[in-house]
Amino acid sequence: MANRSGPQRPNGTAQAKICQFKLVLLGESAVGKSSLVLRFVKGQFHEFQESTIGAAFLTQTVCVDDTTVKFEIWDTAGQERYHSLAPMYYRGAQAAIVVYDVTNQDTFGRAKTWVKELQRQASPNIVIALAGNKADLANKRSVELEEAQAYAEENQLLFMETSAKTAKNVNEVFLAIAKKLPKNDQNVNPSVPVNITAWLTICVLRAGHF
Amino acid sequence: MAMATSRISKYDEYGFERPEDFDYALYEDFMSQYLKVLALRSKKWSSIMASPKGLKKSSSLKADIRKGIPLEHREKVWLFVSGANEERKKYRGDIYSDLTIVEDRDLADTIRTDLPRTFPENIYFNKSEESEGPNFQKQLFRVLVAYGQHNRKVGYCQGMNYIAGLLLLVTKNEESTFWLLKMLVEKILPDYYSRTMDGLLTDIDVISELVRLRYPDVSAHMSNLSFPWPVITTKWFICLFCEVLPTETVLRIWDCLFNEGSKVLFRVALTIISLHRAEILACEQFVDLSECLKGIIKGPSTLYCHKFLEQIFKVPGKLSLKDLNKMRNNMSKTRHMRK
């Protein structure tokens, strides 16, 4: 429980600061929201991931330069009727990943609706990433890469096609978000003790494509 | 009973694969006590079921239900106390088989997506199409399609797959499952599963209000950590503690739920919070609290279901249906005014 972030280290060297961000995953049912989180947090993949009821909460940290970014991840239920609960989860979120399934055009439409809602109702500076999941099934795709890319550019979203199954771009999408988030003092939380086991802290700097 | 042999198995008596972190020692200890309870209850229920007058709602039946219905009698007793038997008489002919014919393709597609995602760790649900033996995925599909087509206002709500799934594991009968699901959704529970989920939103507010009134320190602590209640309670209400608490405990709760109604859910919720008040208050961070709650529901307090069921009727104190409904009305009004 001892290590603390901040400039108070006795030897005077600047220690990595710790920033904490709330991130929410939104998107139609069965597009792979929970699978993306499971891959990112535990490095696992289940062919049949149980449907999420309500929401699930997990944490994971990534390192960006000299900053440790700690994500508080809210994974939500996708079915339309759970929509009324969603504002509770995206309220105060600094980041969102809106997920669709590249093999299902309807889920892309639904993703757009989520983006609109976030732009209207979430925090004004929220960093939104659009993730076209199930990229391993590209031979069955019904949403073209270019189409999604154009939409993302138009709306200033981060965009990647991901695969929770093969791990393609999963860490990368979280890392891209971490890089884009403002790491000013407001988000630095010096009261947070660095407890490795409790945080499942793994630096996912395997990426390196950026 | 199957229970006795399941102790060392990788699967429990309902076909669920035990998780990797399953505490076998704790479970052994629990079973060594619970088997005696089961033996006594089995004897008692054999005589209840053998009575020539049949089942009759009474305070003594209520007491016996609170002490647990043996697995082999659950289907019959649940159908009786829930009112499903009476309800069934209101319909002419075999409505169930007719309803299983798919008419609403969108509904069927939605349900189909969730089939492999329902209890994937259960041997009765994760069978491939070709393998032999009971395959509850097909039955679950038929039950959910039938119910969704029967009650178009509700259709299919995620969460119902777990409830119907567990009902199938207990009754091994899809028609009984259909009727029990109908009783839960339409008579026993408020409007949890409809498109507006109005009853759920109300009950989420009610439970946080009840905690505020009964355990103000816990309530204040949770709001200090900005822990929104729905994070935990949505699943408690929607799944009726299935996928939350140990299966045997869930079924003991359902025994009372079918007989006494939805206030049982509040008793369970309040008991969990009350028993773990100190641990909850000791959490300094939102993250700790989330981990703490995950630990609680896997721990001994809910595993020892016989003791836990005794506690739910003592620990939270008085909770009348009248007061509860009054509170539901108030909360619902307040919520609609906020809109």
UniProtKB/TrEMBL annotation, chain A:
Q: Where in the cell is it found?
A: Early endosome
Question: Kind of enzyme, top EC level?
Answer: hydrolase
Give the chief site where it resides.
other
Q: Is Transport tagged as a keyword?
A: yes
Q: Which GO terms describe its molecular function?
A: G protein activity; GTP binding
- GO CC aspect terms: early endosome
Q: Which reaction does it catalyse?
A: GTP + H2O = GDP + phosphate + H(+)
Q: Which UniProt keywords apply?
A: Endosome, GTP-binding, Hydrolase, Lipoprotein, Nucleotide-binding, Prenylation, Protein transport, Transport
Q: Which SMART domains does the entry mention?
A: RAB, RAN, RAS, RHO
Q: Which NCBIfam families match?
A: small_GTP (TIGR00231)
Protein name as catalogued:
small monomeric GTPase
Q: What is the species listed in this Swiss-Prot or TrEMBL entry?
A: Apolygus lucorum
Automatic annotation (TrEMBL), chain B:
PROSITE patterns this protein is in? TBC_RABGAP (PS50086)
The reply on keyword ATP-binding is no
Q: Which UniProt keywords apply?
A: GTPase activation
- Any one Pfam family here would be RabGAP-TBC
Q: What domain of life does the UniProt record list for this protein's source?
A: Eukaryota
Q: Which residues form the Rab-GAP TBC domain?
A: 68-261
**Sample GO molecular function, one term:** GTPase activator activity
The function of this protein is: May act as a GTPase-activating protein for Rab family protein(s).
- Protein's UniProt name: Growth hormone-regulated TBC protein 1
